[in-house]
Amino acid sequence: xxxxxxxxxxxxxxxxxxxxxxxxxxxxxxxxxxxxxxxxxxxxxxxxxxxxxxxxxxxxxxxxxxxxxxxxxxxxxxxxxxxxxxxxxxxxxxxxxxxxxxxxxxxxxxxxxxxxxxxxxxxxxxxxxxxxxxxxxxxxxxxxxxxxxxxxxxxxxxxxxxxxxxxxxxxxxxxxxxxxxxxxxxxxxxxxxxxxxxxxxxxxxxxxxxxxxxxxxxxxxxxxxxxxxxxxxxxxxxxxxxxxxxxxxxxxxxxxxxxxxxxxxxxxxxxxxxxxxxxxxxxxxxxxxxxxxxxxxxxxxxxxxxxxxxxxxxxxxxxxxxxxxxxxxxxxxxxxxxxxxxxxxxxxxxxxxxxxxxxxxxxxxxxxxxxxxxxxxxxxxxxxxxxxxxxxxxxxxxxxxxxxxxxxxxxxxxxxxxxxxxxxxxxxxxxxxxxxxxxxxxxxxxxxxxxxxxxxxxxxxxxxxxxxxxxxxxxxxxxxxxxxxxxxxxxx
Length: 492
Prior knowledge:
Distance between the termini: 55 Å
Radius of gyration: 29 Å
Largest sheet: 7 strands, mixed
Helix content: 40-55%
Shape: globular
Structural class: alpha/beta
Strand content: 5-15%
């Protein structure tokens, strides 16, 4: 019998330590022979050592005593086996986003279209012409796979085909933050960059415009005030030392009331008069008007291009609906300076990103925007979501799990359109024996993790961000929590 009280051999805790078997004795035991036969010895040794450390830590913290140590040691081989199996499971997994946040940064932002996924699979399965010109057989640069598509799309949608004053080019890097940094480093290093005080923002993850400017070597020249900046403020700040005029998307906040901000066209006109490039961190990559949704005005990539901004940075995985990447679109002379920057190699993207971006852009050019998931979610009628919510609630409701359809508000998220709200509906869940935090955790531990949100002391699942083809899967998963079968309820 294990003793927990002090005796002549030492304290009760020390006595418990003595009953923890050695690593060598465990490995020689019959329960470990099967593990050693199916896994490399070094892997089994490390997993067993980790479990033994965990046992001793629990003794130290008082979680294990004479009453439960023996039971814990009996299942030690099973715990080692589970540890070995868990290392072979994927950590990055598909989840069901029922939060109502369309561009959820923690959940990977924009989901990709079917054509993008198919193109990724095709390109990833073998070799590709990533940097090879198939016509000449010579080495090429990888941006050609996106450049003409981006420019053709912008020209087509702005009506500027054949009317541009100067040629443009495109560079693709791994995100919009990298695009901004690279542009500043290549064009404004050791020169002044004029920025409104109202745009010295932090866009999340510690990415602050003043710090990025300093890191890139550009010199910050603040103008205006937090709430009001005029074109004249920019003009008076221009000097021979000026390298750029920078305009920054305000990302995840908005200012209302006594505010003023120059029109983009006025800044472009000023830049041309002063021979100073205007660089806009447009951010969202939005190509379509959100007006049908009655959202507050949101600047689009099309408008920036139409106004003749010298250089534009935009995200690929926000309202564009593609993969994570940063697009730099601008005058050919500025893009060539960026391409000559050694940092471009550090920020470049791989063949899978180009495949996804190429397919996404072709979706726009083919007028098949409904194939892009983020645009579909934006335009789902609230009535359709209500019908799906009612069906789901009826199928999963049980004595253990209450399910009620409630009116909800979805948001776009991802550092875009902070004031935009979308009318939606959610299934509000409450478990008979679990608190809402426990229910939320249980949802995340399902075979296909489900991520929801807590509101009014219930777990809400907003179906605007759940793909309709996943409704059946979601119903089956929720039925497990309620102790029933979704299919049997449907038949009933």
